[in-house]
Amino acid sequence: MVTEQTTRGPIDRISGALHHRPRLRLALLLGLPLLWLVGVYGGSLLALLSQSFFSIDDFSGTIDRTLTLDTWGDLFTDSNISIAIRTTVMATAVTIAAAIVAFPIAYYAVRFAGRRLRAVFFVLILIPLWSSYLVRVYSWKLILAREGILFWFVDKLGLNFLLDAALSAPGIGGPSLSASALGQFIVFVYIWLPYMILPVHAALERVPTSYLEASADLGARPLQTFRTVIWPLAIPGIAAGSIFTFSLTLGDYIIPTIIGDSTPFVGLAIYSYQGVAGNLPLAAAFTFFPIVIMGVYLYVARRVGAFEAL
Amino acid sequence: MTTSAVTLADVTKRFGDVVAVDGVSLDIAHGEFFSLLGPSGSGKTTCLRMIAGFEAPTEGRVLLHGEDVTGLAPYQRNVNTVFQDYALFPHMTVHENVGYGLKVRGVSKTDRSPRIDEALDLVHLGGFGDRKPGQLSGGQRQRVALARALINRPRVILLDEPLGALDLKLRHAMQIELKSIQRDVGITFVYVTHDQEEALNMSDRLAVFNLGRIEQIGPPQSVYEAPRNEFVAGFVGVSNVVHAGLAEALTGRAAPFTVRPEKISLYVADAPPADVSTCDVSGTVVDVIYLGMFTRYAVEVAHDTTLEVVRQNVEAPSQDRGLFGATVNLQWDRDACRYLSEGSAENNQGGTQ
Q: To the nearest whole percent, how much of chain B has pLDDT over 70?
């Protein structure tokens, strides 16, 4: 009688060999993503930043590759700093508005919507993300134009004096919504809203009903329960969502191009220095603003526990 | 007549088509440790939630100390709940959790602090105030939940399977402790459990729930010794139901009865002489389960009837395994037979204190 011999194929042998080599498995798992993150992503960022230590020859428009801090001197002009401030204010306002709009929607979906309604609700939130962002911004330009549906509707309601009052406000107004900072704000909030709803929803979903019952049981009125239990537990989700809304607004250059009065934003400034003006060193130096602002923002977000909810 | 601490008056709760609680009435006295015992889905937790105010009854009324609270919100009722999952707020320290009820009622921080320490001492958690719930063991969380309820000095505390998540040893320790705390503070405890042993050893009285109705209310001894029907007999303790046919042969009366396993004596040799005060039957041992203190035998006495017999292991039981398959004689006192009424909730004996 022949003894049965198990024959092992090459794959079998490799998996056996890997089983006892955890470091090798880790290297195989993380090798490619690390190469991408460190090499491609980090490397290109460094290459970009290093450009900021070159300068541009004003006369010929060519890049002078001798190391200099001249470009950095050009960066901190009043107009550039006001661009950075303006962008940060917009990103902050968009983030706050997105949180205010997203919270009740997410809360409703978690606490009240049934299973089917919740599915419908998710589809409604996610469907816009399937269509081109550019298309959606252009349609908003039409909606917000003087001849657009919004003006028509406000006019029908007889409320156009309110809209006109808002549009005549300095800093946020303009000839029409589509050419005002107010219009930019509306479109920013619309475009980034899903990125706020989803993490807030995730955070609220982790608050069991029994917490709310316990709070009521211990004598807290609904508003007290909201302030002391729901809100603190939702904060990590809001902070997580705000990382998206804030950073996406900070870097965006499409919406300020299409909507608004063409006052530059950080993203737009980088884009035009790099593309139109061909001033790569100044564009590179300009990226300093969003990097620093995001660095500060992420530090604060981490302190309030945003990353635990991601 | 003094008013009861808790009264459910003909309470029914429907969720859509499902009747969770079906016309339940009960009175719980002041300072009583009262258990709602039943399998899952029997309506006991829904009853507790209606007392707390988390659910509103579809029909009927809920009274606390004679006051109709049926329409009041949980925060308007002077009861506190210990939740099955404890429901401790994870973003607050133990100190803040325990002080929460006082805080939302506007008690100042300086007045709260000594009371919080006192409540934590009561549950042996002094010095744990600065921890977060996530840093505590299950048993410790359980105590925090209890302290959080006790500190408000409610007139009634509701406990929803509070020991369900603990391991056996801790559960036994907490049973004793809960009972002694309840005696010390003198607050009415309404305790939901599916563990009959827990209900028997802690309660002053208990109500056995089944299918949304109460099958029997009474002190543990009367529920255990005199179950009113087959469900109670089977749920509280081990049921040895003898159906009418065999019952007639044994007792001369064609009524089903139950007899508790510990009342039955098992004889390998002949049993002592039978007389009018005993029931005698022989059967085959079909199962032997060694339980340390006891050995449990299943004895088939008729083709459709197997009786369980518990025998204390007075002598070393090594040879007892050998009883498997053996024919043995069973004998018990006729007084140990409890005749069962087939009906259920209608004629409860309202247990007396």
A: 94
